[in-house]
Amino acid sequence: MRRFFVLIIIFFIFFYSKKIDAQDSSRLRISLLTCGPGLDLYSGFGHTGVRIIDSTVPYDAVYNYGTFNFGDPDFYMKFTRGKLLYYVNRESFQEFIYTYQVETRSVYEQVLDLRPDQKIKLLNFLDSNAQEENKYYKYDFLYDNCSTRILDIFKTCFPNNFQPGTAIQDYSKTFRDFTDYYLRNNHWTRFGIDLLLSTPVDKKMTNEQAMFLPDYLMEGFRDAQLNGKPIVSQTIEILPSELDFSPKPNPARITMWLFAILVFLLWLKRPNLMLYFDTFFFLILGLLGCIMLFMWFGTDHQSCSWNRNLFWALPTHLALAFAIPRKSKWIQKYARIAFYVLLLALVGNLWAAQKYILEITPIILLLLWRLNHYRRNPEKNNLYANVRNIFAQFRNR
What we know:
single chain, 3-stranded antiparallel β-sheet, 14 helices, disordered N terminus, alpha+beta
């Protein structure tokens, strides 16, 4: 009988100790924070963080994988070359949320339904990542950022048990589709980025690749499952967005067309000034081509390789810019080659693997015109003079 009571006592001690451990561990509340896009470039794609609340301490912190050292003396060079190190930062929820309150950006919280042991595993993983020797990583906008890191955490902590939900249908959108949409009102910024981003961003994405954007990570978690059960138990709107994202006119496209029209008028009224324009025009195109080559070969940005815009922004245009004032003998031969290279790219649809940027259309037309001018024998260029005379006669009527 005594042994029986001893066994009963041991059983209850074991049972209640396990229950107490479970209760102690369930004090943790883990959620995913999704911050909506802002109006500036740095905030234009939103942000993601993991919130941990420990009600017994109390403790309310956010693990943020989007932090970098702006005070680094080589910041701009590292950022340009794709070698800037980002790191995970642990900060209080109040510090984290303050920025979004000031910028009136939306913040949504998805509370995760996890077992006590799963919560502890996630917390330990985050704490380990936040250690000095582990917290740094080389940022990549498309493949390794604050959003993809969160997805990778769950795939690492719960291999074979975590299944993300559907953010998009596989291979229905490209990376550029998304970047263009999020920059839809930052037209000059989008234009500049589209010039530098090339073939890799025009590939169709898988569902998981689409989660490089915080909004789509939130969509992926909406019906994600862990061990066959929904991982999100509740979605809370912490802050609503008060920003205006309604479509705005495209000044980049308007400016490019106005520029082309002004050049045409210059040719009609002051043809002797076209020499100066051509020098400036080919100088800018050559410099742009050099930048594209640098982004391809001189940086770690995977998305800048095989840029089809090099068919028209040839770095060799720099030599042509310096040769035009000197009237070098090889100008005609160079212009002929560059003209047919561009014509082949357009007619042969060599942009098929890369989206054509509509804003460059006036530049392409100007380039074809000026290259055609220099590739022809000057003695046979009476066509231009005739056209100019016709316009002059029409104007004088």
